[in-house]
Amino acid sequence: MTKNKTKKTTYGKKDKLKKRIKHKLKKTVESYSDDPVKLKEMDDLVKELTKLDTIKCEVEEADRFKRYFSKSENVEDMPENAADICAGPLGIDEFEHIVEIADDTQIEETIDDKIGEIKSALKNSRVVIVQGNTGCGKTTKIPRMLMDEYRKIVCTQPRRLAAISVARKVAGDVGCDLGSKVGYTVRFDDKTSSKTRLKFATDGVLIKEIYSKQVRLMHSHRKKKNMKKIAGYDLIVIDEAHERTVNIDFLLGFIKRALQSEKARTRLLIMSATLNTERFVEYFQCPLVTIKHRSYNIEYFYLKYDCDDYLSVCIRTAQAIIERERDGDVLVFLTGQDEIERAHFILSGKLSGADVVILKLFSTMPPEEQDLVFQHSARKIILSTNIAETSITIENIKFVVDSGVFKAKRYYACNAIDSLDLIEISKAQAKQRAGRAGRTQPGKVFRIYSYSRYLQMADNPMPEILRSKLHSTVLSMKSLGITDVENFDFIDAPSLESINQAELFLYYIRAIDKNGVITDFGRELANIPLEPETAISLVAAKRIGCLNAVATISAFLEYQTPFLELRSDHPEYRRYKSARSYFSHPKGDFYSFLVIFYSWEQSKFSFGFLRKNFLNIKTMVQILNVRAQILRLFPHCSDTSLSIERAFCTGFFMKAAKISENGYKTIFGDVECYIHPRDGLLSAHPKYVVFYELFSLKNEYMGHCLEVLLSDLQEPINRFVAK
DNA sequence: GAGCACTGC
């Protein structure tokens, strides 16, 4: 294993630095006032404290991203089978037709052919990887066929819906009731029993299971016997491993570590789509079993040039397909709601006479409208975000138009800002998008980028762990006894900056001690299924006596918005606007959430109320569940106080901002920002606010704000300084 | 003043 860590920060060094700065900081805070000079002084100190030079860090981080994406391949390396270039059948000169002959489309292998190989590989190796494309049936067949070799099996899925529907299908195949021999566990829904031998679960559930088994173990005397199996399983199957979510990466690292023990008895099977399995093989040094699966033929068309205005070309291409090809539905991959609405408007005009329906698909739209894509109707053009890449599968797509870009959130540790960036897709994503055609019939894919640009794309998307905030991940790792996070053997190790920032934060809030070991308070936080800041606020709320209100708001904060997103051309737009402003509280989103919840409660949680007020039913039910889950963690609490500001300041004091000449400035980090225009607090111009998140669009915005008093902020800041 | 992709405990 190679470690390319050059810098190693020790707690001892950090401690000394902090002692010195804290002394100065304390003096500053004691005289903390509106004096701009003093405030500036404090900001400087905080910057020194976090040891993050913003500009340098930004450059480094941008560099890191660039390096990741420009895994350059020589443009001249055109494969021989790509030499067949001709004008596309659409007659659009702009495209070149490139025939790619993928060898895995020519031979058909079934799981039955391969299961013997998988079984014997698992006998000889603790870890085995199976690669096969979607549609080969690996998820539904392999775990079931391994039931006669392994007594207790868990198979993880990245999404709740997938875990539930796969479990249902497999229970049917086995011929048992769901929840007996085969079952599933997802948050808020458990269909398993003591008889369950094959369980499908989300990866987050497995992590929680590992955690609670470990806690139980600490109080048990049968330590040695139990250590042999991870969470009591004989076989752990990690499905869709190519998606590389934070949870998957952490599970793989954790299990790899656990399996290094001689006594370990659990086996690990990793299932992944093709293309990036080499990474897993390299990481685990283990055998790979490939299942070749035939799909229908897909023809590829590339743009002859690279263009900036991919949206217009996507629209023109979709139009040309409808006009020149006799039948077949079209799926267009765009980046966001705004683009989709524009494309919808333009295409509706251009194709007004044609017998075609133009549909939109993104996550925050009303579910009834989403369901239209599944209905049998006239010929369809579906304008979708990357929700159609993995989460939603639409049958009968014959044509795919691929813009080559998507939007993704990236966390910049240097200034603690989330930025939603337009990012070029990877080859793996291009393949995934293309595969959405050709599921049920031969298909054609129009790539709105040139072949040479395709060759330059990275092989795989950047793993989530390299672009997200690690505060809560590091906290869970610490709670599992992993103290040395910097040297944890991840497949792709996150930057030292983001690990250090997370550790420093956890240290400030006393979740870990100066040796990096979790404290009792940290354990309490880790047990609350929310971001650490929110979890701290809850613990404070219990003390202050406003737990119910804070729990309600916290549940809302977990979701971006409880509302549906309607555009100004929607027939019900005026009613929608007035519903939104009715619930918009002048003291900001935090209070708006309370108003929404109590109004819903008054309606006895009726769905009619939600529909009437354009609230997202799915989201609101989740919020209700989360709220109940939180309240179960804090039994026998009744509200005696309304100081939710004090409670939230305890958790969010690092996310506070003060009004400035033309907007706000964060107290820690000195970031110029605005209250998001959607927030009810916008017109009140409060002097101090705390915010849930800071994100970057054209400007920096604070999402979900709460007006607070300086005195509310002072106590937690003083406490943190006095440590 | 100006509008955010998708998941999960």
Automatic annotation (TrEMBL):
Q: Which CDD domains match?
A: DEXHc_RHA-like, SF2_C_RHA
Q: What keywords appear on the UniProt entry?
A: ATP-binding, Helicase, Hydrolase, Nucleotide-binding
Helicase ATP-binding domain boundaries: 119-293
What SUPFAM superfamilies does the database record attribute to this sequence?
A: P-loop containing nucleoside triphosphate hydrolases (SSF52540)
Q: What InterPro entries does the record point to?
A: DEAD/DEAH_box_helicase_dom, HA2_WH, Helicase-assoc_dom, Helicase_ATP-bd, Helicase_C-like, P-loop_NTPase
Which residues does the UniProt record annotate as the domain Helicase C-terminal? 297-481
The GO terms this record gives for MF are: ATP binding; helicase activity; hydrolase activity; RNA binding
Which Pfam family is an annotated match for this chain, by its short name?
Answer: DEAD
Top-level taxon:
Eukaryota
Entry-linked Gene3D superfamilies: 1.20.120.1080, P-loop containing nucleotide triphosphate hydrolases
Q: Which protein are we looking at?
A: ATP-dependent helicase HrpA
Source organism of the structure: Vittaforma corneae (strain ATCC 50505)
